[in-house]
C-alpha cells in the first residue's frame, strides 16, 4: 500500500433524519407488498377473533350459567375453543409469510452490499480491513434478522390487537378504560428513551464486533499464523484479542441491560392493573355509582390482560427498531459508497481484440491530498508486442499496469485498447481482453480443478490438462494422490510459490486473453523455480500483447520495448541493448542485479 494513501474509515456517526431512513427501510419491503397485505389480513382477522373471547366469557357468566341455559353455554364454550384454534392457525400462517419476506429482504441486502463492493475500485480494498467488510455483511445484516423477519408483522399484529382491545374495553365500560390507559403516555416516553440508549450502544457494539472480526481474519489466516509463530507474538495476539473481546462483553452487557429497570417498572404496573380495576369497581359501587356485573368485570379484566401483552410488545418493538436503525445505518453507509469504476452509459463491445495498448498523457494520483503517482506517460504497445516496465520500488510500475484492466482509473490522459478508451469499453470485453498474473497468487480453498475453472467454468478436463501442461505444472498435479481433485488449502499453502505461480498461469491460459499483464510474477522465486515459471510465462506470452512489470531484469531482456520509471515518470526507453549503451539508470539497474547474483 502506498504510504501516502489514507485508510478508509466509515463516515462520522451522523444519524440521518429518522423519517428518511425509515422510508428507505420500508422501500426494501416494496417488492413484497402482496405478501405483506395477506399478512395484514391474517393479523386483522386474528385480532378480531381473539377480542371476541372476552364477550363470549361475559355472556357465559352473566346469562348462560345464571339462567341455566346449557345449549347457549355449549355454544359459547365451543366459540371460545374455535377462537383459540382460528387464532393459532392464523398466527402460524402469518409467521410463515412474514419470515419468508424478512429472509428475502435480508437476502436482497446481502446481495446489494456484496454487489456494491464488487464494483468498488482496488483502492477501496487497499484502504479497508478485510474483517470490516466481512463484519458488515455477516454481523450487521445478521443482527437485523429478528427485526426484519418479525418486526413488521409484530408491529401490525400488536397495533391491531391494541386498537381492537381498546374499542372492546370502551364498549364494556368507558370509565374503567380511562383508568387503564392513564399511564400509557408515560410508558411510550420511557420506551423511546430506552430505544435511543440502545441505538447508541448498538452502534458501538457493531464497531467493536467489526474490529474483532478484522483481528480474527488477519491473525488466524495461514499467513497470520505463520507471522505470529515466527515472530513469537502468539501470546501477544491472544492478549490483544482478549482485550477486544472484553470490550465486547461490556458493550453486550450494557446493550442487554439498557433500560431494563425502566421497562421492568412498566411490566410491574401493567401486571398490577387488574388489582386497580377491581379496586376501582369496588370504590365506584361503594360511592353509589352504577354497579358493574361480574361478567362485565371479568371480561374487562380479561381484555385488559390481553392489552398488556401487545402493549409491552409494541413498546419493545419500538426499542428494537431504534436499535436496528444503527445496523441499517451501517449497511446504508456501504450501499452509499461512491463507485469509482463505472461502466459507460453507452459501452463499446469489441468482438475481436487485436491487443494494441496506448498510454496517452497518463496521469494518476490516489486522491487530491497525495502527490502524483504517474505523470506524463506516453507509450504504445502494438498488437502482439511486448513492453517491460522497470524501475525502483515505488516508482509506479504496478499502478501503471493496473490502469489497463481498470483496477484503477486514470486521473489524467487516457489508456486505450485497440484505439478505444478502456473507460468506454464494456466490463465483459475488458475482462475477456486482459489477463493478469501478479506476484501474489490467490487460490481458493478448493480443488485444483475448481481453481482453474474459475477462469473458464465450462472448461473440459482435457482443456484443464492442456493449460496445466503449457504452464509446466501438469506432471506435478498428476503425481498428487487426488490429482486435479486435490484441495489446494487456504490461499494455496499446500503448494510452493513456484507451483502456485504456474497454477495461476494455467488459469490465465484457460481464459486465453489477447493482452497479458505480468506484475513481477517471478520476483519472489528462486533462480531454479524462476526458470520453470519463466518457461510457462513464455508459453503464455506467445502471440499476445504483453506488459511485464519486472523486478529481475533478466526476465525482460527480450522485450521489444523497455521503459524505466522513476518517481512516476518515464525517464528512459528502448531495447535492452540500446539502454545498456545509453549507460543511464537501466544500465545501473543491470549492474546492481549482476552484483546481487554474484553475492547469491
Automatic annotation (TrEMBL):
Keywords per UniProt: ATP-binding, Cell inner membrane, Cell membrane, Membrane, Nucleotide-binding, Transmembrane, Transmembrane helix, Transport
Spans traversing the lipid bilayer: 36-57, 69-97, 162-190, 261-279
This protein's GO CC annotations: plasma membrane
Protein name: Multidrug ABC transporter ATP-binding protein
Molecular-function annotations in GO: ABC-type oligopeptide transporter activity; ATP binding; ATP hydrolysis activity
Membrane topology listed for this record: Multi-pass membrane protein
Highest taxon listed in the record's lineage: Bacteria
Protein family (similarity comment): Belongs to the ABC transporter superfamily. Siderophore-Fe(3+) uptake transporter (SIUT) (TC 3.A.1.21) family.
Pfam family, one: ABC_tran
Native source species: Streptomyces colonosanans
UniProt domain ABC transmembrane type-1: residue ranges: 38-323
BP GO annotations: oligopeptide export from mitochondrion
Entry annotated with the keyword Membrane: yes
Localization terms from the record: Cell inner membrane
PROSITE patterns, A to Z: ABC_TM1F, ABC_TRANSPORTER_1, ABC_TRANSPORTER_2
Record-annotated ABC transporter domain positions: 357-592
Keyword match Nucleotide-binding: yes
